[in-house]
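wait is this the right file?? whatever heres the structure
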Protein backbone atom coordinates (compact mmCIF):
# COMPACT_ATOMS: atom_id res chain seq x y z
CA UNK A 1 0.00 0.00 0.00
CA UNK A 2 1.33 3.44 -0.89
CA UNK A 3 1.59 5.95 1.97
CA UNK A 4 -1.22 8.52 1.95
CA UNK A 5 -3.14 10.50 4.54
CA UNK A 6 -6.32 8.42 4.62
CA UNK A 7 -8.74 11.31 4.11
CA UNK A 8 -9.50 10.18 0.55
CA UNK A 9 -10.00 6.62 1.81
CA UNK A 10 -12.43 7.88 4.46
CA UNK A 11 -14.33 9.95 1.89
CA UNK A 12 -14.60 6.99 -0.51
CA UNK A 13 -15.80 4.64 2.23
CA UNK A 14 -18.35 7.20 3.40
CA UNK A 15 -19.55 7.72 -0.18
CA UNK A 16 -19.94 3.96 -0.69
CA UNK A 17 -22.09 3.76 2.47
CA UNK A 18 -24.27 6.71 1.44
CA UNK A 19 -24.63 5.73 -2.23
CA UNK A 20 -24.61 1.92 -2.29
CA UNK A 21 -25.31 1.76 -6.02
CA UNK A 22 -21.81 3.23 -6.53
CA UNK A 23 -20.10 0.69 -4.26
CA UNK A 24 -18.25 -0.97 -7.16
CA UNK A 25 -16.80 2.33 -8.41
CA UNK A 26 -15.74 3.38 -4.91
CA UNK A 27 -14.15 -0.06 -4.55
CA UNK A 28 -12.07 0.49 -7.68
CA UNK A 29 -10.74 3.76 -6.27
CA UNK A 30 -9.98 2.09 -2.93
CA UNK A 31 -8.12 -0.66 -4.79
CA UNK A 32 -6.03 1.98 -6.57
CA UNK A 33 -5.03 3.35 -3.15
CA UNK A 34 -4.03 -0.13 -1.96
CA UNK A 35 -1.99 -1.24 -4.96
CA UNK A 36 1.73 -1.23 -4.46
CA UNK A 37 4.21 0.34 -6.81
CA UNK A 38 4.00 3.83 -8.20
CA UNK A 39 2.37 6.76 -6.45
CA UNK A 40 -1.37 6.68 -7.34
CA UNK A 41 -1.37 10.51 -7.26
CA UNK A 42 1.33 10.88 -9.96
CA UNK A 43 0.44 11.24 -13.64
CA UNK A 44 3.42 9.01 -14.48
CA UNK A 45 1.38 6.02 -13.25
CA UNK A 46 -0.15 5.18 -16.62
CA UNK A 47 -2.23 2.26 -15.31
CA UNK A 48 -4.37 4.81 -13.47
CA UNK A 49 -3.98 7.77 -11.14
CA UNK A 50 -6.07 10.23 -9.18
CA UNK A 51 -6.96 13.64 -10.55
CA UNK A 52 -9.08 16.44 -9.17
CA UNK A 53 -11.85 18.37 -10.88
CA UNK A 54 -14.82 20.60 -10.20
CA UNK A 55 -18.07 21.52 -11.87
CA UNK A 56 -19.06 25.17 -11.87
CA UNK A 57 -22.79 25.38 -12.54
CA UNK A 58 -24.89 28.52 -12.92
CA UNK A 59 -27.50 29.21 -10.24
CA UNK A 60 -30.30 28.21 -12.60
CA UNK A 61 -28.52 24.94 -13.46
CA UNK A 62 -28.59 25.63 -17.19
CA UNK A 63 -24.94 26.48 -17.83
CA UNK A 64 -21.54 25.09 -16.83
CA UNK A 65 -18.04 26.47 -17.12
CA UNK A 66 -15.75 24.27 -19.22
CA UNK A 67 -12.22 24.63 -20.52
CA UNK A 68 -10.95 23.48 -23.91
CA UNK A 69 -8.18 20.86 -23.67
CA UNK A 70 -5.94 21.48 -26.67
CA UNK A 71 -4.24 18.09 -26.65
CA UNK A 72 -7.47 16.10 -26.33
CA UNK A 73 -9.50 18.53 -28.46
CA UNK A 74 -12.37 18.31 -25.96
CA UNK A 75 -14.27 20.61 -23.66
CA UNK A 76 -13.77 19.43 -20.07
CA UNK A 77 -14.61 20.44 -16.51
CA UNK A 78 -11.90 22.37 -14.69
CA UNK A 79 -9.24 20.37 -12.89
CA UNK A 80 -6.26 18.24 -13.66
CA UNK A 81 -3.49 16.00 -12.46
CA UNK A 82 -2.54 15.89 -8.79
CA UNK A 83 1.19 15.58 -9.59
CA UNK A 84 1.79 13.83 -6.28
CA UNK A 85 -0.35 16.16 -4.17
CA UNK A 86 -2.73 14.11 -2.01
CA UNK A 87 -4.98 17.07 -1.12
CA UNK A 88 -7.24 16.72 -4.16
CA UNK A 89 -9.93 18.98 -2.73
CA UNK A 90 -7.61 21.69 -1.52
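ok assuming it is, sequence goes like this
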Amino acid sequence: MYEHDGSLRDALQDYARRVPEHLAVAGQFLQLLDEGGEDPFARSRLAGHFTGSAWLVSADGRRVLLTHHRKLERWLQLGGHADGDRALAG
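The chain has one domain: 7-81. so i think its the right one actually
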